[in-house]
Amino acid sequence: MSTTKNSAAPVAPTRELPENDWEHFRLYRDVREAIACLPIYFRTETHISGIMATDLHTLNTVLGATIEEQVVRTLNLTRNTWDPDEKYALYSFVRQAQTFPDVLLRKTSSGEILMGIELKGWYLLAKEAEPSLRFQTTAAACARQDLIVVVPWVLGNVISGSPVLFEPFIESAKFAAEYRNHHWQYIRTTKLPTAIKLADGIAPYPAKSDQILDKPTSDGGGTFGRLARTGIMDEYMEKLDDVQLCGIKTVYWREFLKTFQESTTDIDARIALERLKQRVQQATEIPSPKARSALTIISELECLLEVTD
Q1: pLDDT digits (tens, 9 = 90+) for 40-51
Q2: Going by C-beta distance under 8 Å and a sequence separation of 6 or more, which residues neighbour residue 264?
């Protein structure tokens, strides 16, 4: 079946969340809180060093799946935060490949599923200033309690170290799917057809063989499903631009790293480094420990330039 654009846009979708009297409502609420607290509890043995600054933007491709795997491991290790009464001792979070959702809270013995999480990592300093994830799953495949979660991360020392997490984006997967389609048909500006062919005969927790993707009839730019471009994450992304990494805002690190790429001349790279150094020095008359860390990182980058001269 397909949807067509009406002359008047319908009312935007609203979130249909689990009812308070659902038998697993407390679990659902506590899982959401546990996900929000992931940056506090996340630990990893992964350590990155020696990577060229020009290659840092590739880290999400290299480490994305590893970060997602370790997030699931962290959720299971912090069971006391979402199952304090041990009511769900026989359940655990497990990853599944090539179908929606990425993660299931499932009972090992029977396979009973209580909720699902579509989990995506986002390297905060990637060239694009937004998560690149595509979410095309049809709303019918999402149960009310299912979530889509985007976990932002960077290396602890910006250009080296172990991954550290920041506040995740948490949204109802069903609402995200419905809003994505609404935005595609009624909000964005386009002269192209806006009809969408909806996946048919789908229920929550589909099999790998099920065709669960909604597909637009016209998508020349391949942008359908780019959730960050629907506006649903705008406020969240703006907040993360102000997060300080070693005393420098994320937005400034990203701006610098976009300049500092392989095609950049040494002169351009040095100008970018000097601009970054000035931002640190202007932030405070007496450098804080974080600011000193930032200046140390900048010095390391300057040394890299000397080596490559």
Answers
A1: 999 888 898 877
A2: 272
